[in-house]
TrEMBL record:
One of its GO terms (molecular function) is threonine synthase activity. One of its GO terms (biological process) is threonine biosynthetic process. Catalyzes the gamma-elimination of phosphate from L-phosphohomoserine and the beta-addition of water to produce L-threonine. It comes from the Bacteria. Belongs to the threonine synthase family. Keywords: Amino-acid biosynthesis, Lyase, Pyridoxal phosphate, Threonine biosynthesis. It comes from Diplocloster agilis. This is Threonine synthase. Residues 77-376 form the Tryptophan synthase beta chain-like PALP domain. It catalyses: O-phospho-L-homoserine + H2O = L-threonine + phosphate. Pyridoxal 5'-phosphate binds at residues 138, 375. Pathway: Amino-acid biosynthesis; L-threonine biosynthesis; L-threonine from L-aspartate: step 5/5. Transmembrane segments: none annotated.
Length: 413
């Protein structure tokens, strides 16, 4: 892999060989970041060559990814999700230009598929036969699905609160599922111990530096879909911090390779009941744990695993931090559904809720252009969807009762 130079520690700067099962820095325990040779990448791929490609998945960007050119790519079709110009939603929110990147259409219905597909590719290179992770739910279901398609065994640790939709995916994909009676923090700790003990391939967020490399493909797609004319802002919900760090890495890769000539600012959106990364970024103080007090289970992360990269991404991009309440998240679920036909889970729409809030608070100018990433599909968590949208008209099959119900609710004239 001539385009990959090393795995650099974001804390002490030590460089390590980017072997397939590399984890954290052996010197200081810091998180590693994959370093590329951009002048080599530039020689291998031009924008024109890229846009001619017929591979409509994240692997169309293989020159930017830590995989061999003729790699054994996982089977599921991950990536190349649609980017919708959302004019009616933009008008409702009061912003000039808004695009919705619907990553809920991925095979297991969240953006986590990008990371899990990469984990499976690297597990293959490492010669592993079993992959494990702990997750608030989506990393788990995406690992289980992508691993199943490639014939790997999985051991998956989820906190007991994980929504049924996500747990059912795990069971269908044949994972061994350990539902931990405790917080995500407890779940993570137990999984780390088990992974150590049994030597499984580790797909834990922020331990495995390759996951972010998969996630960054969302930015590569956004750029290509916008003909490399970048928006002012990219908004995304933040839990562990790997997704936003991946978004930033993808943008910087494109910039370094000369594919784009300006970098958008990030909008980091967290729940007002759990925002340790935003607090640390805004106040420039070390990260302090927080309670996990939000319906958006995928971003209810009190002790984030990747604060270093996430916070530097927000600061480097000169970004915006904003928090939204559970009510604002539920409202964004309705708004996206009703103006765009896009159905997101609570954490999936949190980025869009944050765009609305940022406009209201004057944190971003009204004449901005924004891409908002919807990170997970609403069918994963139907209880909260019903909470957001309410119940239908319930009646027996009789026209007079239908007329009566319409008279009350304002049906057709
Ligand atoms: C995991 C996840 C996020 C947040 O990603 P982090 O890397 O944990 O910050 C946001 N939305 C959904 C739907 C997710 O599954
Ligand atoms: Zn280090």
């Amino acid at each position: 892999m001539k385009h990959v130079i090393s795995a650099v520690c974001v804390r002490c700067g030590a460089e390590h060989e980017a072997v397939p099962n590399v984890t954290t820095c052996p010197k200081c325990g810091g998180i590693l970041d994959i370093k590329y040779d951009y002048s080599y990448i530039k020689k291998q791929l031009t924008k024109e060559q890229l846009t001619q490609r017929k591979e409509y998945s994240m692997w169309r960007y293989r020159e930017f990814l830590p995989v061999a050119e003729e790699g054994n790519y996982p089977k599921l079709r991950v990536g190349w999700s649609p980017l919708y110009k959302a004019d009616r939603l933009a008008e409702k929110i009061g912003i000039k230009t808004l695009y919705i990147k619907d990553d809920g259409i991925n095979p297991t219905a969240s953006m986590k598929d990008r990371a899990s597909a990469m984990a499976v590719a690297k597990a293959y290179e490492a010669g592993a036969d079993t992959i494990a992770c702990s997750s608030t739910g989506n990393a788990a279901s995406s690992l289980a699905g992508n691993a199943a398609a490639a014939g790997y065994k999985t051991f998956i640790f989820v906190p007991e609160r994980a929504p049924k939709g996500k747990v059912s995916q795990l069971m269908i994909f044949g994972a061994t599922v350990i539902s931990v009676q405790g917080t995500y923090e407890d779940t993570f700790r137990l999984s780390a111990e088990a992974i150590d003990r049994w030597g499984w391939y580790n797909r834990n967020a922020a331990i495995n530096p390759y996951l972010m490399e998969g996630k960054k493909t969302v930015s590569l797609e956004i750029a290509e879909q916008l003909d490399f004319q970048m928006p002012d802002y990219v908004a995304i919900s933040v839990g562990d911090g790997c997704s936003i760090a991946g978004v930033w890495k993808g943008l910087k890769d494109l910039y370094e390779a000369g594919f784009i000539d300006r970098l958008p600012k990030l909008i980091s959106v967290q729940a007002s009941g759990c925002y340790p990364i935003n607090r640390a970024a805004r106040t420039n103080t070390p990260l302090e744990p927080m309670e996990e007090n939000t319906i958006a289970d995928s971003i209810a992360v009190g002790v984030p695993r990747n604060p270093d990269k996430a916070i530097s991404a927000i600061l480097e991009s000169n970004g915006v931090t904003v928090e939204v309440s559970d009510e604002e998240i539920l409202a964004a679920m309705r708004l996206l559904g009703r103006t765009c036909g896009v159905f997101g889970e609570p954490a999936g729409v949190t980025g869009t809720a944050g765009v609305k809030k940022a406009v209201e608070l004057g944190l971003i100018p009204k004449d901005s252009s924004v891409v908002s990433i919807v990170t997970g599909n609403g069918l994963k968590d139907v209880n909260n969807a019903i909470k957001a949208a309410g119940e239908p008209i319930h009646i027996p099959p009789q026209m007079d009762l239908l007329l009566e119900a319409f008279a009350k609710s304002g049906g057709p004239q």
